[in-house]
Amino acid sequence: MSESVFPDGFLWGGATAANQYEGAYNEDGKGLSVQDVTPNGGMGEITDGPTEDNLKLVGIDFYHRYKEDVALFAEMGFKVFRTSIAWSRIFPNGDDAEPNEAGLQFYDDLFDELHKYGIEPLVTLSHYETPLNLTKTYNGWTNRKLIGFFEKYAETVFTRYKDKVKYWLTFNEVNSVLHAPFMSGGIGTPPEELSKQDLYQAVHHELVASASVTKIAHEINPDFKVGCMVLAMPTYPITPDPDDVMAAHLAENQNYLFSDIHARGEYPAYINRFFKENGVEIQFAEGDKEILKENTVDFISFSYYMSIAESAHPEKYEASEGNIMGGIKNPHLEASEWGWQVDPVGLRLVLDQFYDRYQKPLFIVENGLGAKDVLVDGPNGEKTVEDDYRIKYMNDHLVQVGEAVKDGVDVMGYTSWGCIDLVSASTAQMSKRYGFIYVDRNDDGTGTLDRYKKKSFNWYKEVIETNGGNLK
Asked: Which family, according to the similarity comment (predicted)?
């Protein structure tokens, strides 16, 4: 056992999203969200209403089984648990005059259950769960009215849970709106018809809303810690050709735009050329600049699954499969069963780069391996999954987090994605499993929903017990 390099108080835990695991899509007054009409994943077809083939309607039935699951998280030793509040559970249509008390009570009960075991909630306000009515009536975040709806929703939950939740995130993977406008921004316009003007105006509305609710949060409870959440994806030039290096640099700036504004409070100079060359003129309302500047985030959180490569001539190379953010395949890296390239060193790179750029605490709130797990009989007759591949993936990534800590980076914590199996956001499959806990549900909707501990369950428990001292 090596001596841990992770700081005392490091927040170890797991991460989930309401739309991927709660189920109960129409119970206790909940309204429909964009997820209830995308049975094939967030970038797939949009249906007129909920359909039986949409696994997210049931998820893993966490809504009714949360006590059982929280007990398992506690057994692993979680210090923190990341979940989201389903916006349409609180305001079923998004623009309702009054909140839904049954929805508020559910999260009261969940947070109480977490605190019973000493687990700190980390709560995302909007995790790909825009109320469907806000899409149909207002075309999502293209409409500035959503800022007011989001402020009302945020103020409601901040006030309700001011003594139960300390850590908040505004928008999940906010930069993904550039590639998944319906899932990420509730924008109903088909992507091929969506102008850059409308898209980046929607981005502006989200960024102003994020800063505004950060202000509201700090007014309600000055001890609140509010972070942004971006999809982090280091971008490498495919060759040392300066044109390829520049192509990678420009691609990376598209992602930095979001964290730059959240952390620095203003639009960076580099984006002005892009806006000019693409006919984009962001419409600022009175006070927008001040709201952005005066309400920067307390910390930066991010998801990390892969890196990508770029070239000035991408047509010469093979595209990176399964990656919603584009890019070309890196020949030096292996890939998961879904084509996501595995790059542990890229995680250290992201941590170093973000900390150099912002000097703000960082929180890894998603990282994990989606794989086709097979349930087998364990040595004592119990069912389990021999997921050594997941243990290796996570060990190698956490070793690089430790390297970043040694580099001097202030890392607050790590919540592995899908700590319990849930429905995939990108493909809406159950078979793309991330969890330490296997849930008996199949892609066709069959299964008992019973829970079983995978081999990685006890491995991660030891990681937490030793504060990372068992990593190799």
From this structure: Belongs to the glycosyl hydrolase 1 family.
pLDDT in tens, 7-56: 999 999 999 999 999 999 999 999 999 999 999 998 889 999 999 999 99
Residue 375's alpha-carbon distances to 11, 356, 388, in angstroms, are 30, 43, 13
Residues 418 and 438: their CA atoms lie apart, in Å, by 10
Burial 82-119 (b: 16+ CB within 10 A, else e): bbbbbbbbbbbbbbbeebbeebbebbeebbebbeeeeb
3-state helix, strand, coil in the chain (%, to 5): 40, 15, 45
- Would you give the end-to-end CA distance of the chain in angstroms? 9
Name the one residue in this structure whose structure tokens are 């945020």: 154
For the entire predicted model, the pTM comes to 0.97
Name, in order, each residue with C-beta under 8 angstroms of 203's C-beta and a sequence gap of 6 or more.
Answer: 141, 177, 178, 185, 258
Residue at 293: amino acid letter: K
Closest CA to 34 of 221, 180, 198, 226: 180
Question: Residue 366 catalytic?
Answer: yes
Q: Per the residue annotation, which of 120, 173, 310, 366 is the catalytic one? A: 366
Name 98's Cβ contacts closer than 8 Å, sequence gap at least 6. Answer: none
Instruction: Look at phi and psi of residue 253 and say left if phi exceeds 0, alpha if psi is from -120 to 50, else beta.
Output: alpha
Q: What is the spatial distance between Cα 17 and Cα 85, in angstroms, rounded to a whole number?
A: 8
